[in-house]
Amino acid sequence: MLKAFVRFHTSARIEFTAAQSKWCTGSTMDLRTLFRIGFIALLAGIFVLANMPGNEAPSVFTYDKFNHMLAFFVLTLAAMLAWPRTRPLVAFITLTLYGCAIELSQWLMPLGRQADWRDLVANSLAIGMGILAGSVANRLWGRNSADQQAP
């Protein structure tokens, strides 16, 4: 029975590979492209959530700074996985400026939200942790080597 399963599994894999080349010609979507799409969606989603009127904004944690940290950790991790050869300092500065833009928009718009420097600190800590996690993940997957083809 095991022999029959292995034979079926091998033939199914060959058929799938043949069908894949037939249906997936032209453009391929790799994992990096999915991470980039996810990163753009996260940018938009975080900005919208951060600028919702005060009581309407959903939250995962009761302590607001943990919500900031979760959002910016996931955002940074997606950025590091989408662009594996990005310099950590460039990612840190860029995403910190994005956090500043959110705080500025909260300060300027009359939506019942307030800009808070402690939010920037929470964002920056999460960005640092996301860079660390993304760098480790890229190193484990071997995705940040110099011999990798440029996108």
Kindly list the characteristics that best describe this protein.
151 residues; mainly alpha; 5 helices; disordered C terminus
First-last Cα distance: 45 Å
| Radius of gyration, whole Å | 21 Å
Listing every helix as H and every strand as E from the N terminus to the C terminus, the arrangement reads: HHHHH
Percent of residues in helical segments? over 70%
Q: Which band does the percent of strand residues land in? A: under 5%
Mean pLDDT: 81
Low-confidence stretches: 8-25, 145-151
Total count of helical runs of at least 4 residues: 5
The gross shape turns out to be: elongated
Explain this structure.
The structure is a single chain. 71% of the residues lie in helices and 0% in strands. The protein has 151 residues and is mostly helical. Helix 3 crosses helix 4. The radius of gyration is 21 Å and the shape is elongated. The C terminus is likely disordered.
Topology:
Layout: H1 2-23, H2 31-50, H3 64-82, H4 88-108, H5 117-141
Helix pairs in contact: 2-3, 3-4, 3-5, 4-5
